[in-house]
TrEMBL record, chain A:
PANTHER family: CYSTATHIONINE BETA-SYNTHASE
Annotated family: Belongs to the cysteine synthase/cystathionine beta-synthase family.
Gene3D superfamilies: 3.40.50.1100
Keywords assigned: Amino-acid biosynthesis, Cysteine biosynthesis, Pyridoxal phosphate, Transferase
Official protein name in the record: Unannotated protein
NCBIfam families: cysKM
Pathway: Amino-acid biosynthesis
Source organism of the structure: freshwater metagenome
Presence of keyword Nucleotide-binding: no
From TrEMBL, chain B:
Annotated InterPro entries: Beta-grasp_dom_sf, Mopterin_synth/thiamin_S_b, Sulfur_Carrier/Prot_Modifier, ThiS/MoaD-like
Transmembrane intervals: none
A Pfam family assignment: ThiS
Protein name (Swiss-Prot/TrEMBL): Unannotated protein
Organism: freshwater metagenome
Amino acid sequence: MTRYESLEASLGHTPLIGLPKLSPKAQAGKPAVRLWAKLEDRNPTGSIKDRTAIAMIDDAEKTGKLKPGATILEPTSGNTGISLAMVAKVRGYKLICVMPENTSIERTQILEMWGAKIIYSPAAGGSNEAVRVAKELAAENPDWVFLYQYGNPANTLAHYTTTGPEIYEDLPTVTHFVAGLGTTGTLMGAGKYLREKNPNISVIAAEPRYGEVVYGLRNLDAGFVPELYDASVITRRFSVGAQDSVRRVKELLEVEGIFAGISTGAILHAALGVAKECVDAGVGADIAFIVCDGGWKYLSTGVYGKDGDPEVLDGQLWA
Amino acid sequence: MSAPTIEVRIPTILRPFTKGEKVVSVEATNLAELISALDANYTGLGERLLENGELRRFINIYINDEDVRFMGSLTASLKAGDSVTILPAVAGGC
C-alpha cells in the first residue's frame, strides 16, 4: 500500500537495496558477503531524522509537554531541524534551531523555508557547543519546549519500533548492522531490537571524524557523550576520516548509482571494512547499513566534484 | 625482540604536552604500555588520558580507526604499522 493520509503518515518503511557491484566477491566455494543499503532519504523530508522528530513530538504531545502553538527548541546540525520544522509547520508549532555557524548553507536555506528560526553557535566546539547553547537557552526560557534528541528516549524508541523491525523483516538473515553515531539513537534503538531478535548480530558504529576546528574544545571535559549512549548495545566502533568518507560516498554513487550524504560515506567505509574481514575469514554475511540522507544538502561543500577536496570538510560539520 | 614503534596522533587540546607535535612515535606492544611510554616522554600526558587506571570518560582512543573500548581497552594489542589516534568525545547527529 503506497497511499497515505498525510505526508507524516508516509514515514519509514524505506527500501533496503542490495549492492551487487559494491559487495566484495567471496572466496571460491565460500558463502556470499552482501551489503544492503537502507535508503533513509526516502522519508518525508529526506533523512532518517524524520523518525526521531515525529516520535519526539508525538511523545511530547501525549505527555502534555507540548501545548498548541508552543515554541520548540533543538540543537541540530541540520537534518533533525529540517524534520522538526516540517512537523512544526504542519501541526502549528514554532521552531528554534541552535546550529553551529559552519554547517552548509543549504541547511539554513531549507530550515528558513520551512519557517524555523536559527540561532547560531560558534563553529569551534561544533555540535557540543550547539548542545551547550541550547541547554542554556532552555534554562532561560522555561516556556520553550526542549525536545533534546541526545537524551530523549523517544529518539531511541523510534528506531527500536521502526528502523530495527523494518530491517529484520526485510532481511531476517542480517548478520551486521552498521549506522552512524551521532545522537546514538539509531544504533541504540535498532541495534537493541536486532540483538534481541538475534544476539549474534554485530552492531557497528561509524562516527565521522570531525576536523581540527571542531576539536577546539576548551578542555577534555568539554567532550560530550549523549545521554542515550549505552556502549553495551554496540560491538565495534570506528572513527572515519574525511578522506575515506568522501572516497566511499563517491564510490557509492559511481558503482551503484546511489547519491548519499557525506556521513553515509563514513558508515559505508566501516561496512566495507567489515565485509572484507568476512571475505578473508570465509564466512557469509548480510551487512545492512544506513544511508542517512541524500547528497543534495552537501553540494556546496564541493566534495562531489572531480577536484573535490575532502580537506574542506575539516572546518565544517558534515554529519 | 623490541616493541614495535607506533605513531600516535595527538589532538589539539593535548599538544601543549608534546610541544605542539601533532604526531609522535613511541614503542609499545599494547595500549597500557603506549600510555606509559607517552607519559615517560611527555610528562603529565598520561594523567590526561587515565583516571584510576581506566580511560577517562571523555577520551576516545582508536587503533587504526577502531575504538579501543571494544578491543579490550588498555589491553588492546599493538603491532608494527598500527596508528593510534586520541580524540575527545564529540557528539555528531545528522
